[in-house]
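pipeline/complex-builder :: batch 7 item 3
reading input block
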Amino acid sequence: MQTKPATTAFLELIQQNKRIIFKICHAYCKDRREHEDLAQEIVYETWRSFGSYDKGYRFSTWLYRIALNVAISYYRKEEKYKHIIPFPEEHLVEFAEEKEGQAASERFSLLRDFIQSLNEIDRSIMMLYLDEYAYREIAVIIGISETNVATRIGRIKEKMRTRFSNPSKPDHGTE
Amino acid sequence: MELNEFKNIWQQYDNKLESSLKLNQRCLEMIQAQKTRSKLAPLMRIRVFEMIAHAVAIWWLAGFLLRYYAEWKFALSAVVLIGFFILSFITCLKQVIIFRRIDYSDDIITIQSAMVMLQTHNADYVRLGFLWIPTYMAYPLIFFKAVGGIDISQVGADWWMAQLIFSGLLLFPCLWIYRQLNYRNIHKPWVNKWLQALSGKHITNAMRFVREMESIKQGMA
């Protein structure tokens, strides 16, 4: 069972890495209610797994794995199963949405739309790539070879070139 | 725009994400106190219940087999149904094993494939249903014998022979369909249509996703 210091340690680590959760929520969900639901699920599942956290990994890498797994599962769920939250009266996570509004610019919107147009796996790869994770780390998080990561990033770059050289033609990924 | 420009935009976005997320410590402690279980737990309880039901059926049919092993029609029917229930039991057992291995901190391809395999359980029953078709006479034969001691094969030798021939004719097509109806063939239009009609669109979508995961892992997609 987790002890009190574990709660504190967990909160500190989440606090330090909360940007990851925020970015993933925005990449996989479009409306605000879903952002909070997903963030809640991510923190909930991270906390449940915290006892088995392997310190051999950077916490951010470990969190990325859990958060992306939860986000992809959430994204693929049917609507009626999306809002089963263990604590309906109280929110485990609260978003201050206006910060995202401040961050958004026209060019950022283009990038976000592009990321959202990719399939679930390429979306994860793209986010990790933009966060400057090494191919080796991306390979470990996704569960594919480094060569495969390089190939997929090459294809995403190609899609980007096509998309932004001809912005009127949106690319809807492989879904 | 160039890729480097996107990286810069992303970094600027990242830098502006301050105090966007607040955690409720009280809520976190409540989770700790309640020894939370996975949301998949109810699903697994259903699978365990199914396993128990299949085990009971196997146990009962084994008893029936012991009682009537000298009468080949009943013995053969019992063996066929035991085989059918063993397959159903194994299908549920595989699901429970997948469930126990799910750990969100594992890599994405492994976990997403496992999650989707849990969703496709209904399709496993659809497949098993095709295996059951050629053995359809085994059920009434055993049922009437067990309940009322009636041997329905006594209806007439011709009728019985016709049923056997019909079952024999169904055997190979049904086996072929059983082998075809799986996620590896979901790209075939007829497999997709059949599974969609028999188990729902969410199942075929899930199967396509598993196939995509496999292709990604093999570097083919």
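note: Chain A touches chain B through 75 residues (CB under 8 Å).
queue -> next item
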